Amino acid sequence: MDKNFAARRRRDLLIAAVLAVLAALAPLFVKDVYVQNILILTLMYAALSQSWNILSGYCGQISLGHALYFGIGAYATELLFTKFGVLPWFGMLSGGVIAAVIAMALGYPFFRLRGHYFVIATIVIAEIGLLLFQNWDWAGAALGITIPVRSDSWLKFQFMRSKLPYFYFALALCCLAWFVTWWLEDSKWGFWWRAVKDNPDAAESLGVVVFNSKMGAAAVSAFLVAVGGGFYAQYLAYIDPESVMGFQFSLLMALPAVLGGIGTLWGPVLGAAILIPMTELTRSYIGGSGRGVDLIVYGTLIVLISLALPQGLVSLFSRAKARNQVKGAT
Amino acid sequence: MGLLYGLIAVGLALIFGLMDVVNFAHGEFLMIAMYATFFLFAFFAIDPLLSAPLVAAALFIFGAVVYLLIVRFAMRAKANAGMVQIFSTFGLAIVMRGLAQFFFTPDYRSIPQSWLGGKTVSIAGIFLPEPQLIGALVSIAAFAGLYFFINRTDFGRALEATREDPGAVALVGIDKNRVFALGWGLGAALVGLAGAIMAVFFYIYPDVGASFALIAYVTVALGGFGSVFGAFAGGILVGLVEAVTALVLPPSLKSVGIYAVYLLVVFIRPRGLFGSM
User: Fold this and answer.
1) Do A117 and B271 touch (CB under 8 A)?
2) Residue A329 in contact with residue B132, Cβ under 8 Å?
3) What's the confidence (pLDDT) of residue B129?
4) pLDDT tens readout for residues A40-61
């Protein structure tokens, strides 16, 4: 069993490396800007969903308020950049740190709540953040911030001529989130999280420090999501509260993981790879009428998938494998 | 206003108390009830006060159908049960919003102050100078009715029993699915009633439910999940807090007060004010 586990982890790492190299080569073949945009968004949501999955999937604390951290990352990056001239690279990092600190500060009271009380508290806190930013004049209130774009520069992390640098950053972020998850999965924390998710009381009695491991998950998760927020802000070169802190982000972060498989290493990646292109394509091909047909299709798929595959698409693979093993044994 | 929040929330509380499912499409139930009321007025000139029972009846059927088609299966999920419930009802909410956009307003962006808004005001004119007052009275009547229903009728007792032990009631010949479907219908009917009243003094647009849904969740959680009386008390509290916040803070921040009170309450009592469990 242990040997199998180690082998599986090595294989996961190998697969990830191959996929990353293939993805890195993709722009050689994909010159269409529209498709590149979809690729960038897919990678970004894969990264966000992977980060969300750390707290909500592995640790079982379902958060529907991660838009707060996303928005904090975006705002920290852009406020530091436009008001103080701090380079976005540092902005993203400080956004991540601020988000992690806030996540831990919120975790202190929040982690006493269970089940739906916790979920609603996360939604509520993100909504408060949204309302405060909408009324915060210094941060542009509801109008938001337009980021001045002058030149292509790695230093300032802005590029007008090509989307490729954004693509590679999104890819790097996605790899980072995946690697962190991979690494934590087999760490002391990873085991604690699964114990906390399965049965917090039993975990507590066995000496798992439930509270601390939840805090750790929240901090890592918020940090990575905030970096993603900073990236998104630079990519769009314009932010306003609704467009970076709206509830839809909390959902969009959760959905790929739910679709692919919650609390699994590959679930968020697989989910994002299917869901995001689908969202974008339905939006541009049938959503153009503005009559909500894309919402109908999208919502129907969510209902069907969550009912038919409660463990996500990843479970299809493990089911197929289990069947093969049974066949091999007989 | 607070009583109306309570009325919206009590349907949610009923469904939750019944089977531990949070209906994340609750706001959309409210939205279709408001549309139904509006169309009954626009096409048949039926006063919202008269159409309220019709709308409630229609929502009753709708709620039961939603249970039979979706929730029944969501409750069967063994793995990630909480997630499946959240996302299947969320998916339903998205579909309902999409359908509302499709049928009722072609242009998604021009909804808030559309032609619907003007009509609503004129309904109010014919209807009553104090629609809110009527709303409050209807809410109290509905609460009293619900309380009586749960505590005094056979069906109410069947609901309670099924909630206590779904396995045991099967032995005495109660069909769990039937009871749950009726419970969902009842929960939906209550929100239908609320929607019919609110259609009188609120703009109606496909996303209208979303703005009330969060307040409804807060109301229920504030009172404590599973407690009908808690939802009633939570509603009154939310209404009061909203009124007070509106005096102190700019109007755009009025919900912040409600959310802050929610956070404060659950930090002190993680089960809500009247929650047992």
Assistant:
1) yes
2) no
3) 43
4) 888 888 888 888 888 877 777 7
- Percent of chain A surpassing pLDDT 70: 85
CB-nearest to A116 from B73, B225, B259 is: B225
- Of the partner residues B92, B107, B271, the one whose CB lies closest to the CB of residue A303: B92
Complex confidence, ipTM? 0.72
Angstrom distance (rounded) from CA A274 to CA A270: 6
Residues A150-181 have pLDDT tens digits of 666 665 666 666 677 778 888 888 888 888 88
Name which of A52, A302, A315, A319 to mutate to probe chain B: the one with the most chain B Cβ atoms within 10 A of its Cβ: A302
Helix (H) or strand (E) holding A62: none
> In A, which residues are within 8 Å of B109 by CB distance?
290
In this prediction, residue A330 has a pLDDT band, given cuts at 50, 70 and 90, of: very low
> How buried is B154 (Cβ within 10 angstroms: 0-12 exposed, 13-18 middle, 19+ buried)?
exposed
Contact B88 A302 (CB under 8 A): yes
- Please tell me the predicted confidence (pLDDT) of residue A159: 64
The residue of B22, B90, B205, B215 whose CB has the most chain A CBs within 10 angstroms, and thus the best one to mutate to test that interface, is B90
- Please work out, in degrees rounded to the nearest 5, the angle formed at the alpha carbon of residue A261 by the alpha carbons of A256 and A262: 90
Upper half-sphere CA count for residue A24 (Cβ side, 13 Å) = 11
Task: Give the nearest chain B residue to A60 (CA atoms).
Answer: B80
Structure tokens at B83: 């997630």
As beta bridge partners, residue A238 has A146
How much is the average pLDDT of B167-177?
A: 69
Choose, out of A120, A127, A252, A293, the residue to mutate when testing the contact with B (most B CBs < 10 Å): A120
Residues 6+ apart with CB under 8 A from B185: B59, B60, B61, B62, B63, B64, B67
